[in-house]
Amino acid sequence: MKAMRFHQHGGPEVLRFEEAPTPTPGPGEVLVALRAAALNHLDLFVREGIPGVSLPHIGGADGAGVIATAGPGSGRYPVGTRVFFDPGISDGTCAFCQRGEHSLCDQYQLLGENRDGTFAQAVVIPEVNCRPIPEAFSFQEAAAFPLVFLTAWRLLMTKARVQPGETVLILGIGGGVAQAALQLAKLAGATVFVTSGDPEKLARGRAMGADAVIDHATTDFSREVWSLTGKRGVNVVVDSVGAATWERSIRSLGKGGRLVVPGATSGPKAEVDLRRVFNRQVTIYGSTMGSRTDWDQLVTLAREGKLHPVIDRSFPLEAAAQAQARLASGAQFGKVVLDIPPL
């Protein structure tokens, strides 16, 4: 099969479009002939160098395609079924899995990080992770859905438990997790504020349903939040930026507020005035991916037409380096997607 691999860590220039062995599904697994894959910042971090990655490596967590081959013990979905999948792989047997916390599994793996991923014509995935693609979704939309919506759902619904009438602040509305969070927060009945340093992205965020937009390039977003809320602060902040925004995110929260953290694109080490944490009784939630229950709830909402991934731009698989460069630039609004030729 054709794949986009790298044999050493580095910038986009290390990516090679080349022949790679077509994987064979094992017990309980299926081979998915991919038609599209979506990029995440994880792909950049893995390419640049994360300990434990075996080389050569195929990146990519998100993908969509058709069932090509079923391994022993598989067969829930017939060959030819259009599927997308939860890219988080758990063993199903550890104590965490037994209580439904699959993303805390002792043997947890993520496609494109701990094993070869979706930047190829085919990928092997446990059948239990797969679900039929909603009829209204294209392969591109299906590929763009799982990681960001699963992350946002677990943050807002499973962890923070956003309620109708609450206020939610989402940083960086150009990103996929931020856009998924906006849709979910509005679906939950919340008032939503979003930030960006790009006026066009702010306009598109408002068109998606944001109740207020904040240009963080020209103003301190925490001050704007206190003005918008009558000095009460928001109930929930979604911050995947990390070090550059952490202190202002804490400052934006009102009493009993919740800060939810799915990543740290600006760096992992942050400083905060702890008095704001305990005086306001703030709760900080970290989260990675989600459970199979979370995944099934999301798929149901997608089938009902209540959730829609936003596509920024698509590139052919062989142009993955250009696609990753666009993601790294921060110029995108929504998901950057790779189109994959049939196996």
Question: Can you give a write-up of this model?
Answer:
This protein has 343 residues and is of the alpha/beta class. It folds into 2 domains: 2-145 and 309-339, Quinone Oxidoreductase, Chain A, domain 1, CATH 3.90.180.10; 149-286, Rossmann fold (3-Layer(aba) Sandwich). It is 28% helix and 26% strand. It has 11 helices and 18 strands. Strands 3, 5, 6, 9, 10, 17 and 18 form a 7-stranded mixed beta sheet that branches. A 6-stranded parallel beta sheet has the order 13-12-11-14-15-16, sandwiched between helices. Strand 1 and strand 2 form a beta hairpin. Helix 4 crosses helix 5 (176-187). The longest helix is centred in the middle third of the chain and has 14 residues, at 146-159. It starts with a strand and ends with a strand. The model has no long low-confidence stretch (mean pLDDT 94).
Short description:
The chain is α/β, with parallel strands linked by helices and 343 residues long.
The CATH class of the largest domain, by name, is Alpha Beta
Please tell me how large the radius of gyration is.
20 Å
Q: Say what the CATH topology of the largest domain is.
A: Quinone Oxidoreductase, Chain A, domain 1
Number of domains: 2
Along the chain, the helix and strand elements come as: EEEHEEEEHEEEHHEHEHEHEHEHEHEHE
Structural class: alpha/beta
Shape: globular
- Flag low-confidence runs: none
Rounded mean pLDDT score = 94
Put simply, the count of helices is: 11
Beta-strand proportion: 25-35%
Helix content: 25-40%
Q: How far is it from the N-terminal to the C-terminal residue, by CA?
A: 7 Å
CATH architectural name of the largest domain: Alpha-Beta Complex
CATH superfamily of the largest domain: Medium-chain alcohol dehydrogenases, catalytic domain
Count every beta strand, where a strand is a DSSP E run of 2 or more residues.
18
The biggest beta sheet reads: 7 strands, mixed
